[in-house]
Amino acid sequence: MDEASKTAYGQYCPISRALEILGERWSLLVVRDMIVGATRFNELARGLPGLSRSLLAKRLRQLERAGLLTHREGRYLLTEAGRGLEPIVFGLGNWGATWAFEDPHAYELDTELLVWWMHTRVDTSAFSGPRHTLHVQFTDDPRQYWILVERGVPSVCRSDPGFDVDLTLTCDVATLYRVWLGQLPIARALESGALSAQGLTEWTGQLQTILKLSPAAPPVMGSRAVKT
Questions:
Q1: How many CB atoms lie within 10 A of CB 22?
Q2: Alpha-helical segments (H) within the chain
Q3: Closest to 32 measured CA to CA, from 117, 156, 147
Q4: Number of CB atoms found within 10 A of residue 62's CB
Q5: What confidence tens digit (pLDDT) does each residue in 35-70 have?
């Protein structure tokens, strides 16, 4: 018996073959992050903080051997086979939003991960100037973060970068997660006071345009509409 057969399901079936490639822990989340734009090792590591760098490297090698991605010039890029997983990954998101997505557990509320996710979806293209700063502070966590967008390139700062702040968002961690994932509409969060947005009028008035929600938000919003 060769090494491959030891970990195989031993069933000649396309589903079992797919699971032999994608059934390892973290594999689909690595693919998820690549689908939404991560191409560098450090980007993937930041977006998957529960995954050790050594195991991330192993998963990337496995996915590359399976023909789902290529690695060149320091970038990981999905192949045609890898891009073909997009409807499957988001199909799982649709199922999870409908059948397995309730209130968050405390261990799931990672402030740094949330701000990291958010920084990839901030859109300041409608505003003038080469630099924009978004300050995120939580009422139930002492850590503060700044999302700095310089010439269209966003980054996350854990300490004050020293630039004028265009917009400050303040709320508790769970609320911002719920907003980000489409469970709580931004307008409703602002109206109730659960979320505070302070800063330039042009920013506060266009918050829903500036802060684009998670790619996983549409099925969550659809599920919320069905349930209500």
A1: 18
A2: 3-7, 14-22, 27-35, 41-47, 53-65, 80-83, 86-99, 111-119, 173-180, 186-192, 201-204, 207-210, 217-227
A3: 117
A4: 16
A5: 999 999 999 999 999 999 999 999 999 999 999 999
Q: pLDDT tens digits for 178-206?
A: 999 999 999 999 999 999 999 999 899 99
Q: Return the structure tokens found at 14.
A: 């396309």
Give the Cα separation of 208 and 185 in Å (integer): 9
CA distance 68 to 85: 9
Tell me phi and psi for residue 148, to 5 degrees. -105, 125
What's residue 226's pLDDT?
46
Gyration radius from the chain CA atoms: 20
Contact indicator for 207, 197 with CB cutoff of 8 Å:
yes
Q: Are 42 and 74 in contact (CB under 8 A)?
A: no
104-139, pLDDT tens digit by residue?
A: 899 999 999 999 999 999 998 888 889 999 999 999
Amino acid letter at 126?
A: A
Block residue for tokens 């199922």: 95
Which of 147, 207, 218, 156 is closest to 181 using CA atoms?
Answer: 218
Instruction: Look at the block and give the residue holding tokens 């690595």.
Output: 30
